[in-house]
Amino acid sequence: MSKWATRIGAENMASHSACPLCGSLDFGAMDTSQLPDKWQGYSWQRCAVCGYAFQTPYPAMEAMAEYYQDEYRKIDSRKDTHGGVEYPSPKDLAVQVMRADRQIQSFGALAPPIPRRVLDIGCANGRLLEAARLYWGSDVFGVEFALIDHDLLDKKDIPWTDDIRKVGGRFDLIVMSHVLEHIDQPVGYLVDLRERLAEPRAHILIELPDTARHSAFSDFHMGAYGQATASLALMKAGWVPKQQTQPNPGVFITIGRVP
Fold it and tell me: Number of structural domains, the chain?
């Protein structure tokens, strides 16, 4: 039995019958023997056609939303990654500042029009939205599951919701920083963003952990991406890939645009 079934109950599990990225039926179990011990016991598969790696069976997203709120940033779940310290630790804050700065720089390198409205999905305590408001004068909005971040966003006067379905209006820039790998149906999710929330000619910026690093296969990640599969996800969802950069070993940024 998958460790996820033990953690959240078998009744909260679902399975993919085809590759969630390209739809191929040709996929099989990955050799995960080289992964850290804490990530053993999860059911990683790899598509033989497009190379996408994904978990199946996997936790249903409704169950995961509750799990993120209750457990994801609690001390017990952070023992291996943050020394069991309370969130947000100095390391948390430093990582969020670093990510926001490189995302602002990567987007700016395209020399696009200044985004009037910016949506950050998985905005944590809002560092990127602070920067967008400061550097570009953008109107900003955040989506964040973690209850612990909501007070921090309120103190910064950043409007937010914990439900992507409640986001209104359209945006010139949509950011997903270490979020897409947590989504079980990435193509459908990206289609919804393009059709419902993106302005004409809007951009999307996605930062992901690279499959070159073991951290891409964390238990919380429903999929793991390389640069080719990230571009494929955008194209399958109707976005036009515009640029990819690898600012640090182990992570990369891919930027797309509405046609």
Answer: 1
